[in-house]
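Progress note, project year one: complex with pantoate.
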Amino acid sequence: MQRVTTIADARSACSQLAGTIAFVPTMGFLHDGHLALMREGLRRADHLVVSVFVNPTQFGPGEDLEDYPRDLKGDAKKCRNLGCDVFFAPRDEPVYADQHSTRVIVDDLDRSLCGQSRPDHFCGVTTIVTKLFNIISPDIAVFGQKDLQQLVIIERMVRDLNFPIEIIGVPIVREKDGLAMSSRNRYLDEAQRRQATSLSRSLVAAHRAHSEDPALPCGRLVDVVRTRLSELDEARIDYVECVHPQTLVPYEEDAPIGPDGAVMAMAVYFGSARLIDNLRIDRPLPDGPLRSLK
Ligand code: PAF
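Model obtained:
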């Protein structure tokens, strides 16, 4: 594995790889969720490139940029063990040049869900992902479905701006008790960690309610989730929405799920940790921990 820290070295290392390149952009502190993205990349391409960069432009004022967990040494080791070819962790030069003034905005899709409480977040994401795509020139890029809105926005950006890159979404990887893996889970204290399992449990409850009565209005499905979450004294709901899987537009409260299906999506604060999760309501539960949750 080549470890590179400058844009020029990353570009040169990637251009020397013969065959197809899968790219997994990350902010580091890698967990099994990231490793699943990397395995999927290796399965689909000849080479794997991973970047680790805690991107300041996607954090809002008062968010956890300074505290965001970091473990570059551990990350490099995990990537090497997995068979990564190039590990790009920029250092020694600014990623954003002086007077960087170009921003990539994917309109509309960035307004709902997380965009409501993190108004500049997705512009930060699409701008850094564009920069990384231009440095690495991958054939495919792999993202997690946990950040569903990010995935949908990047798919739209790649289509609209004609990037010759295939975007792959990988299902959420969960802890045994159902909690979606996230670098931010490490912020949780014991009580919060216990209560955080209710996120996935409430999604499963909404899934069950829909399969028992597919005509149930979306507002009622959202209520199932909200009622469960409101029992938690450590949790503060940012949003719970039942949305169209491609447009991310919330369904009307009194309408049932449409023919394209629906995703139940949520963001919940535990102290300063903001956790997100989502579940496709109209499809069978994915293999894994959700199937055994009550
Ligand atoms: O999903 C993430 O970790 C980040 O948003 C990404 C895609 C690496 C951009 O900084």
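The pocket of pantoate is lined by residues 25-27, 55, 58, 125, 128-129, 147, 150 (CB under 6 Å).
The radius of gyration is 19 Å.
No further modelling is planned for this target in the current period.
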